[in-house]
## 1
Amino acid sequence: MNQFRVITRWRPLASSDVHQTEINRNCEEHPNSRISMSLVPSAPNTRPWKSEAAFTQVFEARDNNKTVFDAVVAPTLPEVLKGHCSNFFAYGHSGSGKSHTIMGYDFNNPHEFGMCLAAGHHLFEKLEALNEADSDAALQLGIGLRMYELRNKTAFDLLNGRCNCHVREGYDGQTHIRGETEVLENGKVRVRPIVTKACWSFDELRRELLTGLALRATGSSTIHDQSSRTHAVLELEIVTRALLDARDAVIERQSELVPVAKRATDIYLEENLKGVVQTPDGEYIPSPDYQIDQARIDAAEAQKAEFETFVKEAEHHVEEIMTSSQHRCLGGKLVFVDLAGSEYYHDKAAPSIPRPKQTAQEQQEGRQINTDLLSLKEVIRAKAHKQTRIPFRSSPLTMVLRAHFMGSRTVKSHSAMILTVSPSAEQFAATMNTLKYGNLIGVAGSDKKAAR
């Protein structure tokens, strides 16, 4: 993980908590500019807790979304405008303010934009200035928005009618999220990736974001009866029409290759089956009555190779657009992950809190959420211990986030996790567990010896 930061954000007391006691908490800044946190419970028989120097910054309940954005996201935008990637994760129990931080609830007030929308607003200000110098419509810079959620080992495309998608690892070792297979005319087979909505203005981006948010799955949890029941992933990538068209061309060339490759395989099998016979003993030997038509096989393989070349040429064209662009920002990306609420804890010290009744399906979903979060935690632990094998394949969530954790040889990756927590003493266990999780991540992303 490159430059992984951990930020804590205390939300205001909810209306139902205004008469509750607040958690007694303290922060201590260390010489390495990291912060340790300590919690003192008000309930008897509950131990206090203190973290290591694992946190980068702490925001109080009085800090609005703009304050958080200016301190956490805005400093990374110059790197995005150089073509790099910045990733932001929000983690906390249900109702702690994750969605408010990432998505926002007021889409007309710039001071309360979620980080995703605020980032889009700032990027468009920069892109509009760059576009003024280029009159070619195909080279005008915009933002490509991808928005999907992960739930029960399945992905759903929120910008394509919540289309059911599949998470798979390709032959190249990369994780791909693709929709249903489409059988087209002439035997062509097309499998489209997650839809990218091209937005050429901030208003378009806001409209598409609202469309996707309307399709997010919600349900009751152990904390909150309107909890998000999925991990939502939002990607904002700087694109041009030429780049998007080139990527579409790759998909088209791949669909053309499928029937040609299938025909080559069928001919090979057909000729080889004709070329053997079975003896009474069950052995297969060359048929004396049929000569394999190698020329037919070679012709089919040659046609397959030709279409494979078309695919490679299309892929090369995408790379060429990326590397030859006069704008370094092309391909720069912001990734926001609104992790589903952590449902793993049960606060025995607060039995008076009413718990929404969950259906059997919602209970199963809660268990899957916890499995995903545990997998994410183990990936971070493996990175912290510099293990040679990191269990990215342990869940679809960690498979999808692999590239965001690892970066690449040519693209730098900057990551941060925002822990959203409640100051209510009734939520002491939930808050402590969230901070423990953040403590692990913070230690993994910093020099542990220097933190002491």
## 2
Amino acid sequence: MLSGLLLLLIGAELSVRAAVHLAAIFKVRPLIIGLTVVAMGTSAPQMAVSLQAAFSDNTDIAVGSVIGGNIFNVLVILGLCSLIIPLRVARQVLHIDIPLMIGACLLAIGLSWSGEFSKFDGALLLVALLACLVIIIRQGGQGPRHGRAATSGKPRTFTRMAMLTVGLLMLVAGGHLLVDASVVIAIHLGLSERIIGLTVIAIGTSLPALMASLIAALRGERDIAVGNVIGSNLFNLLGVLGLTALVAPMPLTISPNALVFDLPIMLGVSLLCVPLFYSGYRIDRIEGLLLLALYLTYGLHILAISTGMALAERLESLMLTAVLPVLGIVVVWGTVRAWRRQH
């Protein structure tokens, strides 16, 4: 497990550093690099786990890890990054990328109401992913050089691309090691496949994205930190779920609990990004605390229903009746003030 963490740390540093330099070399905004290259790379463990689970007939894990990963990405990664440094959000994120993420959620939910994801559904999700990538890249356009002016040239470009590749491979390897160790622990605790997928595997496969965004935030690369989260969510829903459904030997069945609880929670979390990002086009620390508190409440709920632990139920009640309302009022007030300033 320690070796996995070390690989994640080193891989995240290499990936972010290489992504920043490549953005400067190709005169592409770092946001686009975060939304595409970094996001796809950090979602690779999710792809590997979902495919393996589908071929092992563990469809609850294949689907649950995608849903849980998307919830974790928004609530925990954005929450932690905003505690490090308030995240300024580019207008493209609010006007284009967030609607695409919400649209992907709605598409996945719409296809799921049949109770399964068929091969046709998988192909449709992959087509939607390609369309999203085209929109993101075309709308991103050519941006100014970021940071220091980068010296163009094939040797320098090759070096940065090699660094990015090595960094992403280290992220994948580190995430794989942590997931394996975590699953063994979860099985010993007697957790169900759905709960393991929503929590242990979802968190484990999201650790590369977490480390990449945290390192980006620490280095002041806010566009990469935010873009990585949104891009990972798009790639998880449309790419991972789509390819898994397309190549799996059997349709991916969806549990009733996922239909009535997990998928709506994922959609609600995505919709929450709209008012948060609209308040001054930034996520402040208090809003980051709200996101983390929401995930803590969600985690306590999952723990309470899966284990029947009385302490988890009491803590969940405390979060719902005291902590979340206070944080929610503060965030709503901040959003209203931001709207008044803009108008």
## 3
Amino acid sequence: MAAAVEPDDAAVQAAVTRARALMEAQAHDASSVQTLKERMLHIHDDADDPELQLDWDLYREVPATMEQEEALLLDYFRKLKFIYLELETKLRFLADLQDDPETGQEPQILSTADVTQREQECKRVKQQLVEAKTRVRDLRAEIDGTADALAAPWAAVERGTSEAHVLLSEITDMELELAKIKAAEGTHGALTTAEAEAVCDEQILAMQTLDDETTRTVQEMEQAKRELNEALRALERLKAERSAAEKRANEAKLGMGRDSGRDWELERLCTKHATMLETLQAALGITRLAAPTARDLHITLAPPAGEDGHRTLQLRFDEPGGALVDVQLLDAAQAPVALSESVERYCREALHTNHAAALVQAVWCTYVA
């Protein structure tokens, strides 16, 4: 029986030894965690550490690095927050599992009701945290909106400041130039009463001189206007005299020929040729003669009885009244008329001999061809 108990006692002793070792390790971890916690709680004491200070001059020169630094710091504090929460959880967990020799606090044993109550408390705190984060986001959005709204006024202020600096520089330059002018002319301070009166007298005399010159100029202008009117009247009189002289000259020129200047022989020849042209037009069936240009002549021929549509003979000369160079025959639709070989030969002979009447005869041949 004793032999049977000894192994059980050995197992118990081994379990006790392992439990003590585990508790010592937990106590060591707890002390280390407590030390880290105290260090984190007193981290603000190192705020004056040069390594933790930001180089604002660098950010002023390169503003884009501020955003990068902000992103890195945000990531760093996010990790630091996670580490802190993890350590705080471990501390509380260990404090609840073991006794505290210093305070005499015993391990905390929670019932189901306690767990439920703490869960509700955690939910309430978490809800408060969510609301706080929402307020922070709203505030940040409002700050961003305000910053965007202030961008344009700030740019305007910057432009105004730049303009003000430029104006101040110009004013300073003008003051310096004015001081140089005063120093060069020997003028110091304001004018005395006597000096001011003298300047006023000089200005009054100058104004009177200008007034006299203006009056004299106005009088000269009036005199020039009167002379101009007289010259215009003389010009009108000369125009009337010129018209009368030209009329008398024309009358004298007409009186130099026979029958007061009329050439009866020329008129007779013109009448004869006009009558002959009318007779030829009626005999050849020409209904219209037109000369679009000085070197073109269009002759429109009426069709003979029983034929449809008139035809137009277009003649072209090398110069006005010169030799024929081209001939073309068009129908009523202004389309070229096909000529037979005999008619074409006849047209070539007429062109060679410069015989326009023969061309008209060739046109009449096309009606019977």
## 4
Amino acid sequence: MMNLPYPRCRLIETDSIDELHGVIMSLVPDLQSKYGVLCFLYSVLINYGLESLRHGMADDADTLIDPVHGHASQCLINLLISGQATPYLFDGERNVSGITLTGILKQPRTGFLTLFEALHYCESGWYLKNPSYPIWILGSETHFTVLASPDPFLVCEETDIKSKGATLHQAEIEFTKLCTDQDTKAGFIRDSQLEELLKRLHISFTTVSLGNLKKSLDPENLGVILESTFLQHFFPQEMAKRLTTVRQFHVIHYNGLEKSNSDGRVRYQTGEAHILDPTEDLIALEEIERSPIQRCLQTKWPTIRLRWDDGRTPSLN
């Protein structure tokens, strides 16, 4: 029998999704009560497994809730949005000095962007920047808010590598895993590693075609395969699409703290986002806003410009 945090807590087990849905609907008033979020958190942790949670945390001294500001730790945020308890933001796994660190293993439904990346403390990987729905949690030094958009073209759902063939991003992940120096993302692999890369991406080949491919990707016979050359060879259309992007879209921002909203009233703020061409960005005459939310969103869209409908820039804190 599992020991629950408080005597009044009840552990309800169900045998099917339908039964679980019924239980949740019956508990809606409780979940909307003062301690509803806490009950939801306990449910998540118990379902995930406390031992698995401890294993995923970087250090035994880590906490799930920041003792100063009261917000969730990165490990807890990642668990809630990706189902994986890990304090790291990068994609897949990385080997650092012989130690394997696990990051985000699959595309989540909700993304995560952080002001700390703009401050060069960390970097969110492709998965967190490109969720399957256009919804992102925005992190600041003291708080988390939410940004969403009704524009579905901002995101694309990643396909299953085994059933539908490898995607461009999956190829980038596997290429990076084979790079000699994963920390600095060397951008090349040895030609002897090409066969292993093709196997990981489920790209069929023969001994003859492998030899011809090496000659094509390494015409100067240097013994290395450049990442850009490999990706351009196998994913020309996807690489071309990267040169185009949604140039304008609606955004909705939510900050649940009363003190961070005008008149102390919690409300959604809506606006329009414009993505400038890099050349337009260089010659733009208007002064670039350097607000925290602008800097945070620039970690995904470097040339983004924001215009808020009420003329007031939302607060991340």
